[in-house]
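We store chain and fold; thus.
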Amino acid sequence: MFKKIIPGLLFSMLWATGSVAVKLGIHSADALMLASIRFIATGLFFGPYFGLFRKERFWPLKHEWKSIFIYGFLCTTLTLGSFFAAQRYASAGISMLFIAVAPLLIALFSSLILKRKLTRFEIVGMLIAFTGLVLASATALPNATIKPIGILLLTIYVLAYASSSVYFSTLNISLPNVSFNIWQVFVGGIILLPFCPLFHQNHIHHVDLNLFLSLFWLIVVLSFIANQLWLHLVGQDAVTAGTWLYVTPVFGYAFGYLLLGESITIYAIAGTLLVVSGLVISKMKG
């Protein structure tokens, strides 16, 4: 049991650092440009190693490219691109709390597309968690910790996240997860690149230590390690994997408070407690 918990818990903790890393990085570069550099660099850094020195197959077969492009667009371009853009309009804690709605959508999409039957505990637990999200995000608006455009971008984020997770669980390809992940991140970054000038997000303001540290964390820890953990979890069960996103806001608020000095309101605490309660209930059997 403990071995089954570790990957999900580690993923939640690492994924929660994403908002902090982005917020630090956008002091040196525009959000979308930072995202594109991260995604393309992930492919350029890890691709040669896995392509030349690992025994696992790295190059996709002809029919696998379609899956790579679709998943890369959903998971990297839309999901993470909108997340990066949202960081100018939402606090780290609220950004992480928005992730809590993704499991609800993953479960819904899985039920509709994959015909996976939801238990009553999963339904009740997800509704409780969703209530916690609404409580924390709605009450944050008057305090300017999130703006309407931030809500829009984070909504796109969770919709694309859920769609990509369900899509990946339907794939039946022989390309190893490590290789698939490197290619989809790289392709997603290429697709995102033209959007940078379109949204006036194509500048690098400072080539400094802050930029390099931010990119190192985003590329190595998130694009590679955290994404590998996520693909492992989704490959086992998309709905069960999604429930680990409920834990992410807890770490998100903690990191925001400890590393960025963000305030934690009573509503944020209440919302987080509801989110965690929803996770516990969704795991119940009966």
Remarks:
- The chain has a mean pLDDT of 84.
- The first helix runs from residue 2 to 16.
